[in-house]
TrEMBL record:
It comes from Pistricoccus aurantiacus. It is found in: Membrane. This is FTR1 family iron permease. GO terms for cellular component: high-affinity iron permease complex. It comes from the Bacteria.
């Protein structure tokens, strides 16, 4: 569970830091230093917006009781899965032009002396990454809070953010060491596996609530070879949705998930112009 928390915070923090880094580098090189104040104002505004969303989610979760709270948490897990898929698709479509699009928006704001536009641009970007992180982690955080292990959750989140800062610094050393393109490709695969894990968790919650019939349960039992409670099986369970004794409904849902994901990515590749058929990311801040 904590590995998932660390990975999510690390990945989302890198994206947010990347956006802020692009804006910071461009404003410094453009000698539009007055815009830097608005940049940090936008960062603060984005963090406040993300925090307000977190407070809203926590309030909604505590307001609901009994089965309604269980349904709410199941819905949040499935929404987190959908958001991860949306994020992967969005990055594949826009990652290549992210830097150019941002710089164009910054240039227009500076030319018109609309520095509040810079603050708004950065605030939206930071709030987007922050709110996604909150939605992704909500179900995990509530489970750990109820189990009394919130310290490990907070520590994993802090380590994830620290690793994000280190990752960004390493990537700034040059693409000879590790490229943004490779970074996004590897994390894209990990995100799809993690979304599969969240989807399985959501299906299990729906089965537990009686909303979804389990079917033959378990469909098989491989716990003697690979237990999903510890070791390699535990890691696969956390990051890929592996189950040693899954019910029929989970197996079918898992298969449908990958059919939908592969179909969606295939459709996206065919729909993109020929120059975008390969996933190319050139978002290195200057």
């Amino acid at each position: 569970m904590n590995e998932q928390v660390l990975f999510i915070v690390w990945r989302e923090s890198v994206e947010a830091i990347l956006v802020v880094g692009i804006a910071y580098a461009w404003l410094k090189q453009s000698e539009a230093r007055v815009g830097l104040r608005y940049l940090w104002l936008g960062v603060l505004g984005g963090l406040v917006l993300a925090g307000l969303m977190g407070v809203g989610l926590m309030s909604a979760g505590s307001f609901l009781q009994g089965q309604a709270q269980e349904v709410f948490q199941a819905a949040m897990v499935l929404i987190a899965c959908a958001l991860i898929l949306q994020m992967v698709v969005w990055m594949r479509a826009h990652g290549r032009t992210l830097k150019a699009d941002m710089q164009q928006g910054l240039a227009e704001s500076v030319a018109d002396s609309r520095y509040w536009g810079i603050a708004l641009l950065v605030a939206i970007a930071v709030a987007r990454e922050g709110s996604e992180t909150i939605v992704f982690l909500y179900g995990m955080g509530m489970a750990q809070l109820q189990a009394g292990g919130i310290t490990g959750f907070v520590l994993s989140a802090a380590i994830g953010f620290g690793l994000a800062l280190i990752t960004f610094w390493v990537l700034q050393l040059g693409t000879r060491v590790f490229s943004w393109k490779l970074f996004f490709r590897i994390t894209e695969i990990l995100l799809l596996l993690l979304a599969a894990s969240l989807f399985v968790s959501g299906l299990e919650r729906l089965i537990g609530l009686g909303v979804l019939p389990a079917g033959p349960d378990p469909l098989w039992d491989t716990s003697a070879w690979l237990d999903d409670g510890s070791g390699l099986g535990g890691i696969l369970a956390s990051f890929a949705g592996y189950r040693a004794w899954p019910p029929f409904a989970v197996v079918v849902g898992y298969a449908v998930y990958w059919i939908v994901v592969l179909g969606l990515l295939s459709w996206q590749n065919h729909r993109a112009p020929s120059r975008h058929t390969s996933h190319r990311v050139s978002v290195e801040p200057t």
